[in-house]
């Protein structure tokens, strides 16, 4: 994980955000291009890190892994359908949604097993293989045995707000009230240096709008 984060970061950046889709929202009988074509203005995954959602298209670098989805041979109806392999489909989709970003993608055919003791907290709209149904079944569905999953690590501007908020919160601390903290060997100068390093790190994730916002906040300080 650490080495992958290092690969995705450059220009002073060190942190990546985690994203996932559990399960990946694929309708039963639909191909991967069919599913991705429904997410041209959004993405079929959610941010797991404690950041506010960022608009699609803002990303410096990312690594995306999809498992449990295979390409079905159908008549090409879009550039995604014309791709030769599942890997090419995912890569084409990422390049379209995040132009200019460094994107790597990996596809594994084997889905994630969800047999006991995996908790059965899934919607009744899921089949035993983890694919979505158009409507709830009229019968009691069996336990979900496996699910397709997408997971990603992403270096993006969304991390600016998270890191800068952490810096602001730490800046408000009255260190005189934390004598035990400094008695452990941390010097006041070291604490202030780490604090400024955190602010510098947050600035590495700024784009134009975030930079203007930070300047306004700095002026208000």
Describe what is shown at a glance.
The chain is α+β, with helices and mostly antiparallel strands and 221 residues long.
Helix share of residues? Answer: 25-40%
Measured on Cα atoms, how large is the radius of gyration?
Answer: 22 Å
Total domain modules: 2
Beta content comes to 5-15%
Order of helices and strands: HEHEEHEEEEHHHH
Tell me the strand order in the biggest sheet: 2-1-7-3-4
**Major sheet attributes:** 5 strands, mixed
Low-confidence stretches: none
**Shape, per Cα inertia axes:** elongated
Using DSSP, what is the number of strands? Answer: 7
| Integer average pLDDT | 85
Q: Determine the structural class based on helices, strands and strand pairing.
A: alpha+beta
Q: Whole-Å distance between the termini? A: 37 Å
Describe this structure in words.
The protein is α+β, with helices and mostly antiparallel strands and 221 residues long. It folds into 2 domains: 1-155, no CATH class; 159-204, no CATH class. 33% of the residues lie in helices and 14% in strands. It has helices at 2-8, 32-37, 86-97, 158-171, 179-183, 188-203, 208-220, and strands at 17-21, 46-47, 61-67, 102-108, 112-113, 146-147, 149-155. The strands form 2 sheets. Strands 2-1-7-3-4 form a 5-stranded mixed β-sheet. Helix 3 (86-97) links the parallel strand 3 (61-67) and strand 4. Helix 4 (158-171) runs antiparallel to helix 6 (188-203). The protein is elongated, with a radius of gyration of 22 Å. The protein starts with a helix and ends with a helix. InterPro entries: DML1/Misato. It comes from Calonectris borealis (Cory's shearwater). This is MSTO1 protein.
């Amino acid at each position: 994980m650490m080495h992958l984060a290092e690969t995705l970061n450059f220009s002073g950046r060190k942190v990546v955000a985690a994203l996932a889709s559990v399960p990946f929202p694929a309708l039963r009988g639909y191909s991967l291009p069919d599913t991705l074509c429904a997410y041209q203005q959004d993405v079929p995954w959610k941010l797991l890190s404690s950041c506010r959602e960022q608009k699609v298209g803002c990303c410096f670098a990312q690594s995306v892994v999809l498992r449990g989805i295979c390409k079905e041979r159908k008549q090409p109806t879009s550039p995604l359908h014309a791709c030769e392999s599942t890997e090419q489909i995912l890569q084409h989709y990422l390049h379209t949604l995040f132009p200019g970003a460094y994107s790597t993608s990996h596809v594994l055919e084997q889905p994630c097993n969800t047999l006991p003791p995996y908790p059965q907290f899934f919607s009744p709209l899921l089949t035993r293989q983890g694919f979505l149904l158009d409507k709830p079944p009229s019968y009691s569905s069996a336990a979900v045995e496996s699910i397709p999953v997408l997971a990603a690590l992403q270096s993006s501007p969304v991390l600016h707000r998270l890191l800068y908020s952490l810096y602001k919160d730490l800046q408000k601390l009255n260190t005189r009230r934390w004598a035990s903290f400094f008695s452990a060997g941390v010097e006041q100068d070291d604490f202030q240096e780490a604090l400024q390093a955190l602010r510098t790190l947050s600035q590495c994730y700024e784009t134009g709008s975030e930079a203007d916002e930070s300047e306004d906040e700095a002026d208000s300080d």
